[in-house]
From TrEMBL:
Keywords, sorted A to Z: Coiled coil
Gene3D superfamilies xref list: Tetratricopeptide repeat domain
Species name: Larkinella bovis
InterPro entries from the UniProt entry: TPR-like_helical_dom_sf, TPR_rpt
Keyword Coiled coil: yes
Coiled coil: 401-428
This protein's name: Tetratricopeptide repeat protein
SMART domains: TPR
Length: 564
């Protein structure tokens, strides 16, 4: 297992508290006693024309109540049943990373009860995830202004908003992060039956104060697992455990929680998508594709019925990206190409520095399919992109094309340009997100250059082994499968360069990463042939054919020519 971190003794103390005081019932009261005051006027839209790149008008657009999106009883001070229902819908969408729908639900709750403090707290959390700190702070201030209508527990939630935002404002400040964690701990001790506080406590033990369940530590896992002992049907706890166990490369355990999340929230796009993550990693790519197609249908129906552009939902880009990679896994290149072309064309109003994520899939697929002439002008245009990330990927792609032509000096020049742009990209990045998404590409090019260059072959082999180790450490769904294709290419290049011993070694690394992949069986067959083991070669080749049974005819002809 990997990435086991414990930041302090607080998680253990929280567990002890949970065991002693948490109610064993899933059912929480919908309301709680508060001070009663006159009804306030309806809360205005957040006051910004855009929040995190999304039009405020869209975030406040009316929304209907929906079933099965991951709602869980979450007590508030409201006496209005519709306000309560919309609030719980907002929390379900918030925990499911459907940020536009979460904001719409919280705004709708405020239309039914303008004094609902927790709806403003929810909006503040949404805006933080949209990476709009001023809007998140303004929503927190609105919640604080309504303190006369809040219970003591709700006031604790408001206080936590300011503590988290202060820590987010200085992400590298460990003291502020620890202060936030301590405040969460204090709130949990005071209100031990509040599941939202427990979830926040799990989130707070991530590396950064922006933690939202995607970078869990062992302390976080212990908290989420303990919550499920008392509330086994809490969708958010299952969701965060999927991410946690993926980070530990325990994909079987992650799959268990993915299945539960999909069962508890069958109409929530991200719940189905999360289930697909680990179906893919445990060899059931057909079902993973089915879940991602269901995810895609939910999203496209939503955009059509609610009349807004897919570009405002980050999740759509992510889902079609992973779906395309899964099609590629099966050799279904035409279907993959359709999705990566769509992804390439989508604008990115949020997180502009990550535009390269939209752009890189299409030209990468073209290069992998030996359609370099089509990829070349796209890569060249990306080297003049508006963001450093685009330029990194553009130079990387040009280097890959040059390397395929054995133009080593040109490839080295492209690598140098990519590395220069990477430095610029990291200067403007708010977190270490780019380390996971951008770093592997120049490193991959550098490793392949070293492998190709006879003058520095020994160093090249050392470098490429370092890259392989780094690729094997990728646990997120997109990086994991992108690493798979990169490891496959290393084994293929080693074979083409007649580095037979290293080709066998590289194939074993590929098999360790994913023993189910048809390309793994294809590479194993190639090594068996080199060693004169015809029965093994034939068996592995048949397994590759079986795994690629749905592949395009062109793909099959390239990999299984009739004259062989």
């Amino acid at each position: 297992m990997k990435r086991l971190h414990v930041h302090s003794l607080l998680p253990a103390l929280l567990i002890a508290l949970l065991v002693g005081e948490y109610s064993s019932s899933d059912k929480q009261p919908a309301t709680e006693a508060v001070l009663v005051g006159p009804e306030l006027p309806a809360a205005p839209i957040c006051g910004f024309t855009h929040v995190g790149g999304v039009p405020s008008q869209l975030l406040a657009q009316p929304v209907a109540l929906r079933a099965n999106v991951g709602q869980f009883p979450t007590p508030t001070s409201t006496k209005n049943p519709k306000a309560q229902a919309y609030f719980e819908q907002g929390m379900a969408y918030l925990h499911g990373y459907s940020l536009v729908e979460a904001a719409r639900s919280f705004h709708e709750a405020l239309k039914h009860d303008s004094t609902l403090v927790m709806a403003h707290v929810g909006l503040s959390r949404v805006y933080l995830q949209l990476e709009d700190h001023p809007a998140a702070l303004k929503a927190a201030e609105k919640a604080k202004a309504l303190s006369d209508y809040a219970s003591e527990r709700e006031k604790a939630h408001v206080e936590l908003r300011f503590a988290q935002l202060k820590a987010v404002d200085s992400l590298s400040n460990q003291k502020l992060l620890n202060d936030y964690r301590n405040k969460v701990y204090t709130a949990v001790r005071k209100f031990p039956t509040d599941p939202e506080l427990w979830l926040l406590s799990g989130n707070s033990y991530e590396k950064f104060a922006t933690g939202r369940g995607q970078g869990s530590t062992t302390g976080s896992i212990a908290i989420y697992e303990k919550i499920l002992q008392f509330a086994p049907n809490h969708p958010a706890a299952h969701h965060y455990l999927i991410h946690a166990y993926e980070g530990m490369t325990d994909y079987v355990k992650a799959l268990e929680h993915g299945k539960a999340y999909a069962r508890l929230a069958p109409n929530l796009a991200h719940a189905l998508h999360m289930y697909a993550h680990d179906l893919m990693k445990t060899g059931n790519v057909d079902q993973a594709i089915a879940e991602m197609k269901r995810t895609d249908a939910i999203e496209r129906n939503l955009y059509a019925s609610e009349n807004y552009d897919a570009m405002y939902d980050w999740h759509h880009i992510h889902n079609i990206s992973l779906l395309a990679l899964s099609y590629q896994y099966q050799g279904r290149i035409q279907e993959a190409e359709q999705l990566v072309k769509e992804r390439f064309a989508i604008q990115r109003p949020i997180n502009l520095e990550r535009t390269f994520y939209n752009k890189m899939g299409y030209p990468t697929l073209l290069i992998q399919q030996n359609r370099d002439a089509e990829a070349l002008p796209i890569a060249d245009e990306m080297t003049r992109g508006k963001t450093p990330g685009e330029r990194v990927i553009g130079h990387y792609l040009l280097g890959m094309i040059a390397l395929k032509k054995n133009q080593l000096e040109s490839a080295k020049a492209s690598l140098k340009a990519a590395q220069t742009e990477l430095v610029e990209a990291k200067k403007i990045a708010q977190t270490d997100w780019l380390n996971a998404w951008l770093d592997p590409h120049p490193k991959f090019l550098a490793a392949l250059i070293g492998l190709h260059d006879p003058a520095s072959r020994e160093k090249g082999l050392a470098d490429i082994r370092k890259f392989q180790a780094s690729a094997r450490d990728q646990t997120g769904p997109d990086p994991w499968i992108e690493a798979l294709f990169q490891l496959e290419m290393i084994a293929q290049v080693a074979y083409q360069l007649k580095l037979n011993d290293f080709a066998e070694e590289a194939t074993k690394v590929l098999a360790a990463h994913d023993p189910y992949y048809p390309g793994t069986h294809f590479a194993l067959a190639r090594i068996a042939e080199l060693k004169g083991d015809k029965p093994t070669a034939e068996r592995e080749r048949q397994l590759a054919r079986q795994g690629w049974s749905k592949a395009d005819a062109v793909f099959l002809a390239q990999n299984f020519p009739k004259n062989k």
